From TrEMBL:
Subcellular location: Cytoplasm
Family statement: Belongs to the PEP-utilizing enzyme family.
Protein name in the entry: phosphoenolpyruvate--protein phosphotransferase
Lineage: Bacteria, Pseudomonadati, Pseudomonadota, Gammaproteobacteria, Oceanospirillales
Portion of the parent chain present: 422 to 745 of 752
UniProt source species: Gynuella sunshinyii YC6258
The organism's place on the tree of life at top rank: Bacteria
């Protein structure tokens, strides 16, 4: 399976039974742009916009942001680029804006922060839309979505950005809007926000952390942090079923997207869009081209009967080995 993966670049990620899977890449630094393109990424599924903010020494201006975003959108056009608005706080501090909290992962993070600094959000949305002019391949995504009013308040700023830019005579297009499903409360909001969003994307890193109450960066509890925990798998199954039922496009952009064992299970659940580190794409594409969805579903059924993540992983690894 691991033989020469390079020739895969221009082949589709298609299962043996003809199911197409879209493979996109995660980025944040300009240096991450070409690895994805070289490996045939079909777009950017997660652009972590906090990364350019973190390497700066003060808040970048709208103009500076626009230049950075244009580099990314232009490099991928006409392929889609999903830009996540600023997701600072938690484990992602800004050197020039320290936040001190007892429980940063439960604190002022992601959309909670930018809704308190709507000028930062407005500037960022303006910069993204301006950068997308002529390419029109921008999608905008909200991190740490956990309650409906966050989406409504975001949409007000989003509409304001559009109105302002049009009033200024700038020829911008309205981007698609999506929310990340990474806080457990968001699971039960999917159907409630169905008509206000164009897509959802599962942040399995944070979803695992918050469902299991295990800090994703604490080595003392690292053995408890496992996305194969049956509760995480059941949550993922629910999200994917719900999205498919509502005809709402769904992707997954956490680490699971690049993990072969997880991919077998996610495809079995009905997921058809994955966004991962560029370096993982060839291996995952090769795996998908050896899979049959019915077989994956049998493996998922078996795995859901087990309760020990090591045994679950072993079961899927044995299946993958058997693919030849
Ligand atoms: C996630 O939480 O799974 C995710 C993709 O976002 P981040 O890792 O940047 O928090
Ligand atoms: Mg996250």
């Amino acid at each position: 399976l691991d033989a020469d993966l390079a020739p895969l670049k221009n082949l589709p990620a298609e299962t043996l039974d003809g199911e197409q899977v879209a493979l996109l890449t995660n980025t944040g630094l300009l240096a991450d742009i070409s690895p994805g393109l070289e490996r045939g990424a079909e777009g950017i599924g997660l652009y972590r916009s906090e990364i350019p903010f973190m390497v700066h020494h003060n808040f970048p201006t709208e103009e500076e942001q626009q230049i950075t975003y244009r580099g990314v959108l232009g490099a991928y056009a006409p392929k889609p680029v999903t830009m996540r608005i600023l997701d600072i706080g938690g484990d992602k501090p800004l050197p020039y804006f320290p936040i001190t909290e007892e429980n940063p992962f439960l604190g002022w993070r992601g959309i909670r922060f930018t809704l308190d600094y709507t000028n930062i959000m407005l500037e960022q949305l303006r910069a993204m839309m301006l950068a997308s002019r002529g390419h029109n391949n921008l999608k905008v995504m909200i991190p740490m979505f956990s309650r409906e009013d966050e989406l409504q308040r975001f949409l007000q700023i989003f509409e304001l950005a559009i109105t302002q830019l049009r009033d200024e005579g700038r020829d911008i297009q309205r981007p698609q809007v999506g929310v990340m499903i990474e806080v457990p409360s968001a699971l039960w909001l999917i159907s409630r926000v169905r008509d206000q969003v164009d897509f959802i994307s599962i942040g399995s890193n944070d979803l695992t952390q918050y469902l299991l109450a295990v800090d994703r960066n604490n080595s003392r509890v690292a053995s408890l942090y496992d996305s194969l925990h049956p509760s995480v798998l059941m949550a993922l199954k629910f999200i994917i079923m719900e999205a498919n039922r509502l005809k709402l496009p769904v992707s997954l952009c956490g680490e699971m997207a690049g993990d072969p064992v997880s991919v077998v299970l996610l495809l079995a659940m009905g997921l058809r869009q994955l966004s991962m580190s560029a370096y993982k794409i060839p291996r995952i594409k090769s795996l998908i081209r050896h899979l049959d969805i019915n077989d994956c579903q049998n493996v998922l059924d078996d795995v859901l009967k087990l309760s020990d993540e090591k045994l679950m992983r072993q079961r899927v690894e044995d299946f993958i080995k058997g693919l030849g």
